[in-house]
């Protein structure tokens, strides 16, 4: 076997560790000095023109969110200040790995991205239809997606690539178990749950922070497709899910989801037995029971698919005061990566497009750039500080400080992690039919995967 070449950056600098991002302590946030991570994300975000690199095919609709449960003691966000508060929203469903022309009923995680137009600015909850994901370190996202896309030689998707990567990445087992279970192919977008997946945070006027998990439970009931039915539908109607969502709303059958939240006091994270910021793990409901927050309803179809669905741009960093992030490493990378992708794919002024524009006043010093179409703030002052009544900072919106510790290093994200327990727990919760479907789906996907590591055609 020939010796492998040393991996380098684009500048030819040898890469010492391609498994772990640079963070402040093993659980700490990522560091801006991790040029290797940023180079990989920036390059990856520009690999496809012009469709999204991931989540390329989807469907979307407008709707409304109404607060039905009181969490005002946990967050100062005005949206949650009183039961009965409402805001408009836009929700985009999508495939993760499939391209624009992909059949809707292919086995693949589904994106579940929501833009809440609150009076304090947009809140983007950008998640999936699963509570976990395949990776816990963002440095591996590019490799993961490459393994799920198409071979560089044939342009075909290949089960060998997928299972090769999964077999060498034990942290993916929990998500793989969900993907190949009966929930791996939803019957429709209306019949699946949504999850923020990451650990986020909320904070109140007293400066108290809580870690949270967001859940959206379908009120239409969970319905799924067996593999054989999904294959048949893919041949008959590749746009089955997109068509179903549009038709249901047009008929007045408005789909709804109950929004729930799990809440963990900040201090609990230090001693909780499960790494609370690990994207491959869930918090058991017996430890942190979900509580109802509100009802989300979709009630209006877009008038122009490209202008509204394709140009919708979601950012996990869109967080009104009282809503925040966590040291989840994958989430921290997404804060940079999503906005960077939009600037490349749509243009620097993407936030001014109608579907992305907040429903509240916007005051920034951003100027110029390609396709500036909103007057470019006229002759208003374009620097800060200034003596001409330009927008100023508001310290009262400052989030509480986050205590961190640890040496800056590339920590092995697999060391000390148990990657089999929660996947096993999920399997043991399944009934006999669900277990049989899971095993059959895995066998079908692995049937042509070779035992040897040769990359056969």
TrEMBL record:
<dbReference type="InterPro" id="IPR024711">
    <property type="entry name" value="Catalase_clade1/3"/>
</dbReference>
<keyword id="KW-0479">Metal-binding</keyword>
<dbReference type="GO" id="GO:0046872">
    <property type="term" value="F:metal ion binding"/>
</dbReference>
<dbReference type="InterPro" id="IPR011614">
    <property type="entry name" value="Catalase_core"/>
</dbReference>
<keyword id="KW-0575">Peroxidase</keyword>
<dbReference type="GO" id="GO:0004096">
    <property type="term" value="F:catalase activity"/>
</dbReference>
<dbReference type="GO" id="GO:0020037">
    <property type="term" value="F:heme binding"/>
</dbReference>
<dbReference type="GO" id="GO:0042744">
    <property type="term" value="P:hydrogen peroxide catabolic process"/>
</dbReference>
<feature type="domain" description="Catalase core">
    <location>
        <begin position="8"/>
        <end position="392"/>
    </location>
</feature>
<dbReference type="GO" id="GO:0005737">
    <property type="term" value="C:cytoplasm"/>
</dbReference>
<feature type="binding site" description="axial binding residue">
    <location>
        <position position="338"/>
    </location>
    <ligand>
        <name>heme</name>
    </ligand>
</feature>
<dbReference type="InterPro" id="IPR020835">
    <property type="entry name" value="Catalase_sf"/>
</dbReference>
<dbReference type="InterPro" id="IPR018028">
    <property type="entry name" value="Catalase"/>
</dbReference>
<keyword id="KW-0376">Hydrogen peroxide</keyword>
<keyword id="KW-0349">Heme</keyword>
<feature type="region of interest" description="Disordered">
    <location>
        <begin position="1"/>
        <end position="24"/>
    </location>
</feature>
<feature type="active site">
    <location>
        <position position="55"/>
    </location>
</feature>
<keyword id="KW-0560">Oxidoreductase</keyword>
<dbReference type="Pfam" id="PF06628">
    <property type="entry name" value="Catalase-rel"/>
</dbReference>
<dbReference type="InterPro" id="IPR024708">
    <property type="entry name" value="Catalase_AS"/>
</dbReference>
<protein>
    <recommendedName>
        <fullName>catalase</fullName>
        <ecNumber>1.11.1.6</ecNumber>
    </recommendedName>
</protein>
<feature type="active site">
    <location>
        <position position="128"/>
    </location>
</feature>
<keyword id="KW-0408">Iron</keyword>
<dbReference type="GO" id="GO:0042542">
    <property type="term" value="P:response to hydrogen peroxide"/>
</dbReference>
<dbReference type="InterPro" id="IPR010582">
    <property type="entry name" value="Catalase_immune_responsive"/>
</dbReference>
<dbReference type="Pfam" id="PF00199">
    <property type="entry name" value="Catalase"/>
</dbReference>
<dbReference type="InterPro" id="IPR040333">
    <property type="entry name" value="Catalase_3"/>
</dbReference>
<comment type="similarity">
    <text>Belongs to the catalase family.</text>
</comment>
């Amino acid at each position: 076997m020939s010796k492998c070449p040393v991996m380098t950056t684009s500048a030819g600098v040898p890469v010492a560790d391609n498994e772990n991002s640079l963070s402040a302590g093993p659980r700490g946030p990522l560091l801006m000095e991790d040029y290797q991570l940023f180079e990989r994300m920036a390059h990856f975000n520009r690999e496809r023109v012009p469709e999204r690199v991931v989540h390329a095919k989807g469907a979307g609709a407008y709707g409304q969110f109404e607060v039905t449960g009181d969490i005002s003691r946990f967050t100062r966000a005005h949206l949650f200040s009183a039961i009965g508060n409402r805001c408009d929203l836009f929700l985009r469903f999508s495939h993760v790995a499939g391209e624009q022309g992909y059949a809707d009923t292919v086995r693949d995680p589904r994106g579940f991205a929501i833009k809440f137009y609150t009076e304090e600015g947009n809140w983007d909850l950008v998640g999936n239809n699963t509570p976990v994901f395949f990776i816990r370190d963002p440095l591996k996202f590019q490799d993961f997606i490459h393994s799920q896309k198409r071979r560089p030689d044939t342009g075909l998707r290949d089960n060998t690539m997928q299972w090769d990567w999964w077999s060498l990445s034990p942290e993916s087992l929990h998500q793989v178990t969900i993907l190949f279970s009966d929930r791996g192919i939803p019957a429709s977008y209306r019949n699946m749950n949504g999850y923020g997946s990451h650990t986020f945070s909320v904070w109140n006027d007293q400066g108290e922070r809580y870690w949270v998990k967001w859940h959206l439970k379908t009120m239409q009931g969970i319905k799924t497709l067996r593999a054989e039915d999904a294959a048949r539908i893919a041949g008959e109607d590749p746009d089955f899910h997109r068509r179903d969502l549009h038709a249901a709303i047009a008929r007045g059958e408005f789909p709804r989801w109950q929004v729930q939240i799990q809440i963990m006091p900040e201090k609990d994270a230090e001693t909780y037995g499960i790494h609370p910021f690990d994207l491959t793990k869930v918090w058991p409901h017996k430890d942190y029971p979900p509580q109802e927050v509100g009802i989300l309803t979709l009630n209006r179809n877009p008038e122009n698919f490209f202008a509204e669905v394709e140009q919708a741009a979601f950012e996990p960093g869109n967080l009104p005061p009282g809503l925040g992030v966590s040291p989840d490493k994958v989430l921290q990378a997404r804060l940079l990566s999503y906005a960077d992708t939009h600037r490349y794919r749509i243009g620097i002024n993407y936030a001014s497009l109608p579907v992305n524009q907040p429903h509240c006043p916007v005051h920034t010093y951003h100027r110029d750039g390609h396709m500036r179409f909103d007057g470019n703030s006229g002759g208003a002052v374009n620097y800060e500080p200034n003596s001409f009544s330009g927008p100023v900072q508001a310290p009262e919106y400052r989030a509480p400080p986050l205590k961190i510790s640890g040496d800056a290093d590339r920590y092995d994200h697999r060391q000390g992690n148990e990657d089999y327990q929660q996947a096993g727990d999920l399997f043991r919760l399944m009934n006999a039919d669900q277990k049989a479907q899971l095993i059959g789906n895995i066998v079908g996907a692995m049937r042509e995967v070779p035992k040897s590591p040769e990359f056969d055609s």
